[in-house]
Amino acid sequence: MNPLLDIERLSVEFDTGRGRLQAVSDVSFSMKAGEIVCLVGESGSGKTVTSKAIMRLIDDENGSIAAGAIKLDGVDVAGLSRHALRSLRGKKMAMVFQEPMAAFDPVFTIGSQIVETIRRHNRKETSSQAWHRAVELLRRVGIPEPELRMKQYPNELSGGMLQRAMIAMALSCEPELLIADEPTTALDVTIQAQILQLLQDLKTEYNMSILLITHDLGIAAEIADRIIVMYAGQVVEKASKSELFEQPHHPYTQGLLRSITTMDSDRAKRLYAIPGSIPSLADLPGGCRFHPRCPYASEQCVREAPALQDRGGRQSACWNVEQLIGGDSDIPAAPTAPHAEIASASLQPAAEQAKPHTDSLFELVHVTKHYPYGRSVFSKEKKAIRAVDDVSFSIRKGETFGLVGESGSGKSTLGRVLLHLEKPTSGTILLEGRDLALLSGARLREERKHMQMIFQDPYGSVDPRWKVGDIIGEPFSVHGALNAREKREAVGELLQLVGLNPAAYDRYPHEFSGGQRQRIGIARAIALRPKFVLADEPVSALDVSVQAQIVNLLQDLRQQLDLTLMFIGHGLNIVRYVSDRIGVMYLGKLVEIAPSEQLFRHPAHHYTKALVSSIPVPDPRRQRTFAAIEGEIPSPASPPSGCRFRTRCPAATARCAIEQPLFKEVGHGHYAACHDPVI
């Protein structure tokens, strides 16, 4: 059978201020009809550039195909005119982007944009016919009340709904090839499971080929037929899903697989992390591009670049495949990244590891945070978004308290209220017995030294015009702790403590990778030796290998600086690994709290059970159907009566609709708010 997509020795270049930059080099692979192929690798490996080259979207980004061919059903896309290309897009191939909000035009309704796509490729279809077809497409991808959604604007839809609408628009002309670029990265694990199940169903229904770009190998294990691994603009391995997971033939693939945090990851051991980071395309190493980070690197790897070689139907580009698959299960010691060790005597506590504490650092008592809206002089009714509703729990000194739940559950709002960045509507927050609401402005500012935050977006949380030294040293300036010379010395120690070179002091944030920027944010957060650090989704935007590096760093700092942490996340395996106890939130309510292992192994609340069941399993031998929760989280402005999860709960009864469940102990140290707990 002839392949639907056949890419032969593709090279892509971009015009930059420093001249021509080659982003993709000598990439070759093919896809059959009805096949799902996953393109995996760290950010900067060339995955998205390759996908955009197939669609010829690089033409609008100062990019060009420098060499090679892209044949779609025998037609060379690389040689088509813009007019011919327009007729091919949508009809033969379509793309689902990582950020659907950026793909939709915010000034037009969802319906009008889908209808426009349908009519552009089928002029014979009337506006009314296209409208009805668009409604059916939205219904097919699982969007409730499609007639209503057609009239709404992109900002009125949730992230999951918007991604479904993007898929509906991509399917509007029934393409043979669907390219999905990180379609689930920004989504909760429950919505991610729904989208992946939808893609599998659509592939079967339309006999459609899907090229899925992801850095999550758990997703690849669940959905792919074959996997292609890219590194620094080149393909380094191609294999079937079962072959790749059973025995990788490239050290980079092996490193990615070992970096995955799973339900089976030993919480007593450090996570494996590939040292260093992916090189800049403007400064690529000679020989094998992976050799500076490779534990198997030899002199030949430094001198000479390996070509893709066929080994029993699979391919890899490595000089040392025989050594890699030679029987030793342990990976050789990897080269150490410069300044990656934790070493700063002046910042370490007296004891090497603080003894666990049993008393509470924070106490939250009936805390609520409501946001009033829609008030009118003509209406006495008070409406409010109930972001946090009657939450009570404690955070013990020296522990890491994890907080999980879908977007809209109130996790981040609770974090901001905890730090008093926003005042609670009601309730009490005690820090070591002191009510933060009763403190004066000056006293509260003094207490802020002990409460710091690590943000999800390490670039958006800093001023890009400031040098790294000024960013990390800002807490010293605000609290007047040090003079200029002392500040520079302290910042240098902090940089070394988080695994960065002190020479980074005079550089700017844009000169660093995402993982390095997050290390800068961590250095700023620990500058004043706080007692408590709130980490709000600190690794969700990072690649799996970088996630492992940052998690290991946080674990080291927690022990060395005697920190108490609150770790908010939707990557449930990561939260399980770092946390001593975990709280689960749903629609502003705390529905379960338990020790980490107990919560994941024996969840008591049906929502927690559904969250755990939605986690992708990075092992093709343990394949299962996606246990996706039906529907989306309701609006916090109008929550359901009784148990707020009842509208999506498979075990809901009539009692759940009229009576709110009490938060009660269901096991030793295990609490849940459910009329009929799982255990």
Automatic annotation (TrEMBL):
InterPro entries: AAA+_ATPase, ABC_Ni/Peptide_Import, ABC_transporter-like_ATP-bd, ABC_transporter-like_CS, Oligopep_ABC_C, P-loop_NTPase. Keywords: ATP-binding, Cell membrane, Membrane, Nucleotide-binding, Transport. Residues 7-257, 362-612 form the ABC transporter domain. GO terms for biological process: peptide transport. One of its GO terms (molecular function) is ATP hydrolysis activity. Coiled coil: none annotated. It is found in: Cell membrane. GO terms for cellular component: plasma membrane. It holds the Pfam family ABC_tran. It is a peripheral membrane protein. The keyword DNA repair does not apply. Belongs to the ABC transporter superfamily. This is Peptide ABC transporter ATPase. It comes from Paenibacillus naphthalenovorans.
